[in-house]
Amino acid sequence: MNPSTLPVAVIGAGPIGLAAATHLLARGESPLVLEAGALVATNVRAWGHVHLFSPWAYNIDPAAARLLESHGWDAPDPAAVPTGGDLVTRYLAPLAALPPLAPRIRLNSRVLAVSRQGFDKMKTVGREAAPFLLSVVSPDGTEEGILAKAVIDASGTYGSPNPLGASGVPATGERALADRIFYGIPDILGAHRARYAGKRVLVVGSGHSAFNALLDLGELTESAPRTEITWAVRRRALGQIFGGGERDLLPARGHLGTMVRRLVEEGTVRLVTGFRVDHLGLTDEGVVVAGEDTVLPPVDELVATTGFRPDLSLLRELRLDLDPAVESPRALAPLIDPNVHSCGTVPPHGAEELRQPEPNVYVVGMKSYGWAPTFLMLTGYEQVRSVAAAIAGDWEAARDVRLELPETGVCSGDGRGTAQCGVAVGFGNVAARQANGGGSGCCGSAIPVLQVAGGAAEAQSR
Length: 462
What we know:
By secondary structure, this protein is α/β, with parallel strands linked by helices. The chain contains eleven helices and 17 strands.
């Protein structure tokens, strides 16, 4: 069999997967998009109630826009801030329905594993000439093998949330209390309102997803005043926990921190710093969450906004070179490592940084960032433009990567960093709240904090 006649398998029909397919078509390649869900953009639909903090201008792939416009698409206002639902209905669903793309998308097709046909991971001689074999299963359990000339994994990380446990594994008791924990951003003001109204709620995590949950809970207290909100973070010092405020070049993102800061200052949200979840237990009073030597008051519900991690199990039969900490492609890790980078701009990167020892395998989009929470969709669009060029053999175009991202206004203390350019795909429920925003959200007024240190919890102002 001549592998060059085979399709390019794209795993995931989300924003980056559909953009990859669009760029492949433009290059004369034959994409085959495999989506595990029953609809395109299944993961985006799961957070459809959430506003992004980046406007439409940062969320539409240029090649996809050209293809849509050639079929009479009415582009949204580039300055408007969409919800996840808007992203699906105004952009992704119309894109997937276009005649050039629709026949190339297979729904309800979950990829279980990717390998080389006839070669396990240890076999070398003749390996690169063998096509890729994707083991794909449908909801009824029927399994089939699909051959491909190249593989682009754009499956994302939304289905693999980090646990509450501070050690990277579920805290003791966390699995048993899974029905009390929501991983991600619940629809607090909509479908999940009854779950949180009038309840004692603990939000764990310090990113923009936490901000969204806290802001929704804060709004919920207006109609359900008995709702109690506790926010626990690992860091002891507040530092730049509230983001860059008015210094952020994405105003919606800056307003998030500013408004959460206000909730803490007003006492609507009780902030606990220096807290690392160790174990959970159910008592007559509610769920008790404890650190190594500190116990928080009982709560009814927990919201885990602790980020996501890549599920690499489907790629284990391939030869990958990943950073041991970030779990991104090794060449990309120094550019995005959140332990180092927190201001500036992410350097442009594409196929060169994403390529693997296994030729023609690329992990792209949020999954390419591993554990780093600094991804914007615009970054993924440039990645797949470059990758499509590389697969088509045009390495000159693949290496000509260009990317301009807005700064956060948040800088690391040592000044060594590049960009913290967003969380996940840029969650930011701010469109209806910006009128009430204001302030820098960085330094200034006293913040009531319950700081956990040395086994004691004491109220402090920072």
